Amino acid sequence: MVLKRLLAAAASFLLVGSTAKFPTTIVVAADAEDEYLCRDYHDFSGDQHYMDKYNTATSQHFQIIWGNDDQTGLINDTFIKLNLDQLEKYREIYTTELGMNDSSESVFTPDGKKYKTNIYLTRTGLPDFEEGWAYMSAEPFTGFAYIFCDPAAMTQEDGTDSASLPHEYGHVLTYHSKGWTDQTITGPWWEAVANWFKEQYFDTLETPTTHFFLPYLRNMNLTIPHGRMYYEAWIFLQYLSENPDNFDVLGKDFIMRLQTEAKPNEYPFDTIERLSGCDMKELIGSFAKHMATLDFKNKELYNEALSKSLEDPFVWQLIYTQPEPAPDKENCYIVPEEKAPMQTGLNVIPLNIEGKRVSVTLRGISDAEEADWRACLVTEKKDGTTYYSTLFSEGTKTIALDGTETALYLTVAATPDEIIPNNFYDKAESGDEYSYTKSDYKRRYPYEFDIKGASPMYRDIKKSIEGHKHPNGGGFVAETVEIDDSVYVGQDAMVLGNSVITDNVVITDHAVVNNATISDNARISDYACVYGFWWATPTISGNAKIGENAVVTAGASVSGNARVMGNAYLLDEYSVTDNATVKGTAYCYGKGVASGQAILDGDFYNESSVSHGAAFGWLESDEYNEKLPYTDGLYAGYEFDRKSNVFAYDTYGATNGIIRNAPLWQEHRATADGVITFNGENQYIICDKTLVDYKNMEICTSVLWRGGNADQRVFDFGNGTSMYFTPANKDGRPEFGIGDTKIVSRTEFEKGAWYIVRVIISDNTAKLIINGKTIGSEKLTTLPEQTFSPLTRCYIARGHSGNYFNGSMDYFRVYFHEADEPEYYYTGKEILLSEPTLLGDANCDGIVDDEDVSLIMKAVAFPSSYGVKGTNPAHITVQGLSNADVYEPGGGLTNQDARSISRYIEGVIKSLPEN
Fold this sequence. Notes:
Elements: E1 25-27, E2 36-37, E3 42-43, E4 46-47, H1 50-53, E5 55-58, E6 62-66, H2 77-97, E7 114-115, E8 117-121, E9 134-138, E10 145-149, H3 164-177, H4 189-202, H5 214-218, H6 234-242, H7 254-260, H8 268-276, H9 280-290, H10 299-309, H11 314-319, E11 324-325, E12 332-334, E13 346-353, E14 357-364, E15 373-381, E16 386-388, E17 395-400, E18 405-414, E19 447-452, E20 454-456, E21 467-469, E22 476-478, E23 482-483, E24 488-489, E25 494-496, E26 500-501, E27 506-507, E28 512-514, E29 517-518, E30 523-524, E31 529-531, E32 539-540, E33 545-546, E34 551-553, E35 557-558, E36 563-564, E37 569-570, E38 575-576, E39 581-582, E40 587-588, E41 593-594, E42 599-600, E43 605-606, E44 614-615, H12 622-626, E45 634-638, E46 647-648, E47 657-660, E48 664-669, E49 672-679, E50 684-686, E51 697-705, E52 715-719, E53 721-726, E54 735-738, E55 741-744, E56 754-762, E57 765-770, E58 773-779, E59 793-796, E60 806-815, H13 850-861, H14 863-866, H15 878-884, H16 895-905
Parallel strand pairs: 1-5, 2-7, 6-8, 8-10, 22-25, 23-26, 24-27, 25-28, 26-29, 27-30, 28-31, 29-32, 30-33, 31-34, 32-35, 33-36, 34-37, 35-38, 36-39, 37-40, 38-41, 39-42, 40-43, 42-44
Antiparallel strand pairs: 3-4, 5-6, 9-10, 11-12, 12-19, 13-18, 13-20, 14-17, 14-19, 15-16, 15-18, 21-22, 45-60, 46-47, 47-50, 48-49, 49-60, 50-59, 51-56, 51-60, 52-53, 52-59, 53-54, 54-55, 56-57, 57-58
Helix pairs in contact: 2-3, 2-4, 3-4, 4-6, 13-16
């Protein structure tokens, strides 16, 4: 079988048949220029002699070859001539106007002669070319590229055209440019370039057109190019070729240079930087700003295509980023984790204009040393002209408005110091270095921003149909809807089309339902869209929940206790059931099923079925997904097993917490491994609100409390009505509360000791267990899911009003059912220190000198002799420990403390402690 390099995807269009006869050989006249010779296909067995046995037709630069069994009924001499003419047009544009190398000579051993490029037609009886829509490949030994395609993929006599040939011929020229030939690192870029070629052809038509780049818009937070939009990433190449910001070297011929001057195995972004000399941060940030209004040469054409796409209102929330209000700061917004850009990825955030001056202060949220961003404020005027602020990174940018603006945007691109080479054909099944949670090139770069004079815009749908307020909740219901009075429709929610809504369904916040069937106890909340059509109806039933900015459309279904959250997108006949959760920007299509306790998250893109574990990635195999690790019932877990001052990393998935104000992390503390310590003043973790959105659940955490004010919160989830645990209420006793229900321990926590706290909620009953002992159980009037709302705040180590936790935490886990009793493996307690009398004075003699350094080193090296309970009379005391804790205070006694004191004595640092 012919070696096939499948570099293009099928496109569909209207077929127009023909059964006319044709001569065996057709020659289309050409001007007298260089002679281009005909050549046969050559593979492992030598020449195949297609030219001798089958039908051929030629123009000056091309030869079409087809068999004697036209199964399409399309081929006749008019059809063949039409497509030879089209191929000549593509070549003229690509080689003359764009400067690409011709495809007439071998990339291996040119013989000084020029040859026509071959096109073989499938479904015509040609051996080895029996099937195939439209592909480019290359002969393995001769170095000549060719195309094989279905006649239906070519230009038809009635003018219909899938535009496959201009795409595939682009591949041919990329191959003959040599720079990217046999280079795996450039693999995904081939499709973007081929589509860019096609668009250049479209631009020469009497009425220019475009195949647009909607998949890129939906996925522009991902790195360029990602498997979810590598065909449509051509718009980035369009930016390089148009060069609207006048970078040196960039321009019309730059895409040619990108392919011809690439070094072996050079990543295209490295090639761009080397050839252009551009600051890549500025280049990526500048491209990002143009995406706000699609401000390119064909701006009008692109916006027409965008407007057509936006006729399905859910597309708006798939394209644009809707930041979440920061729970702990006023006028501050955080980009959702699933929308935070990867390297070279970007966000476009539409803004409501609310003043004459707009000010944005950007702050990154990343523990990557190389992290950086480029942002821009973009305005569009009444005349359609787009204006840009200067780019900015972390810091503040202010612009003045003159009242003629009709649109305002904030664009933010991830521009780390290094763009890490990657190939999205590499899958996690090939190694952890390619996985979503462990590969550096898939790292997200979240950020937050303060804003004045404007506010983020959220999806809105204008009502232009007849309807009424629903008696239960006051929301809008179209007259065409069938709905029970028992259904709740909130005042800002809408139910449209021929939807059928029954039983105890809740549709609240700004949720929209159209042509859907929803029953039982299902809940649709936040800005979720459940959007069907006349030809396909989504079904939501059981206790299913659709929330945040998720979209369920076409014939997809969600049932059982399943949840669809984040910016997930379900379509076709994909099904989510049992206790599965789909979130992130997961794209679920086909007839797959997420069941059991599967979590589909991050950049998941697949039609496969998953029953357990956290699944990510573009088209990971079924075999890989079947082996995903998981812990029974665990939705999210923070084990604090790696150092970070920014994130509490999830055990398996991407439900990470955001750490505020850098609590101390230690590899070992008080016989626990991987511990985070909060100062009781301003340190805490912001958690994803999906943690609390359960009817039945367990929260399990291990904490060491150091005392202090009453009513400190180990966790506090909710808004108004909340669910919390404190190690000491006003009476000094541990207490769990949710709504009006409280469970209080009779025994106080010992300061400095480890306690495993379990809160189990099942069948409307809460149970509190501490160190394996059941403290009490109570019937509930409020369930965790009832504390869930758009304004839900979920904190670890603080409450909604402060109440910061003073202590350490070994882990924090959330299950969707009761879990097994965790092991109590702690063998020691922590010595609680008094206030230091003199920092650095380890031996408590009233001075700081080398003797203090010596004592600390002895106490660390020989704790049985010189530790607090050591046998040597000169051992360190409890007060000495407090005085000696001068390096990252609260971290316990280490040799770092001795080094800090030495540095203080030598005058290297001016004061203690050393942070």
